[in-house]
Design brief:
The protein is α/β, with parallel strands linked by helices. It has 5 helices and 8 strands. It is globular, with a radius of gyration of 15 Å.
Length: 163
């Protein structure tokens, strides 16, 4: 059942969740959840329970690479590059929107405009529930990390910078 009160981009995420057979609901927060810290504050959970979707661009191929990382982790770009077989760089807002169909700050882990190679941060698996963006800077959804990793097709790996 579609919720007509949700923004069109959040409705697209809900459809992707339904296609993935994920029994979840989208929560719209009154304040922005554009950053992991903002989302955690609005939800009353740990920042590490936020599954942030970070889009990188392959420097040789120009392809999009999505890293779903724990909210407290800084992504080790050389490590990710070794996982995907080429150097990666930051993706600008236009590239992110073209690759995913969503604006930075609301990029969900699934339901993108095109297939995207996805890496899933192994640190998220320690939580019973994680929260991910649902298409807008105010919309999020809860999920089991194992279920989310399966639904995204992401390879579960270490992606964070070592201490």
């Amino acid at each position: 059942m579609m919720d007509p009160r949700l923004a069109p981009s959040a409705l697209r995420v809900r459809q992707a969740l339904e296609r993935a057979a994920m029994a979840v609901h989208i929560v719209e927060l009154p304040q922005s959840a554009r950053t992991a810290a903002q989302a955690a504050a609005g939800l009353g959970c740990e920042v590490a329970q936020i599954a942030k979707s970070l889009v990188f661009r392959g420097t040789a191929s120009g392809r999009a690479v999505l890293v779903i990382a724990s909210g407290t982790n800084r992504v080790d770009e050389p490590l990710v590059a070794s996982h995907v077989g080429e150097a990666i760089g930051k993706a600008d807002a236009a590239f992110v929107r073209a690759a995913t169909g969503y604006a930075i700050g609301g990029v969900p882990p699934l339901g993108h405009a095109q297939p995207i190679e996805t890496l899933f941060d192994e640190d998220l698996l320690q939580y019973e529930t994680v929260w991910a963006a649902a298409g807008t800077p105010h919309a999020v959804f809860p999920a089991s990390p194992a279920q989310l990793a399966r639904a995204t097709g992401g390879r579960v790996l270490r992606v964070k910078v070592s201490p």
